[in-house]
Amino acid sequence: MTPPQRRRRHPREQPPPEPVTEGGAAEGEGKQPERLYILAGAADGGERAPIDLVTLIVTSADPPPAATPEQSALLRLCRAPLSVAEISAYLSLPFSVVTMLITDLLAAELVQARAPIVRQAVPDRSLLEAVMHGLQKL
Mind telling me which residue stretches traverse the membrane in this protein (predicted)? Predict the structure, then answer.
């Protein structure tokens, strides 16, 4: 014997379905972001440039008209030297995508990659002596 089924006396009213826009998404839903492989460009088998998080990227050229929006944003950001980590944070893109963009821009000679400035642990003795002699002459 099967147990009795409960039935509602007053069925619930169903809310009307959300209107569908031209793109197929309901109103109120955000646009889907671009896929990362689209932003990074076609993988042609080329190698990435040897870039790490602290490599400084700088450019002095304006973005060319054929540049993608991400490349244009990167070129505008890098008028003053920025590390790859900063670029990744400002553009809200993963490090791997940013390195692919920078590799393309390096190949087109639109940006330059510089090693970070490493300060010496011990200052140069001759420089300290020159400063000391200059202060003694005052």
Answer: none
Distance CA 73, CA 108 (A): 16
Helices (H), 25-124: 36-40, 69-77, 84-91, 95-107
Q: How far is CA 52 from CA 7, 33, 55, 62, 102, in A?
A: 65, 26, 6, 24, 11
Q: How far apart are the C-alpha atoms of 57 and 55, rounded to whole Å?
A: 7
* HSE (side-chain half, CA atoms, 13 Å) at 1: 2
Which tens digits make up the pLDDT trace of 88-111?
Answer: 999 988 888 888 888 888 888 889
50: pLDDT confidence band, cut at 50, 70 and 90?
confident
Give domain limits for the chain. 52-117
Q: Tokens 């990435």 label which residue?
A: 48
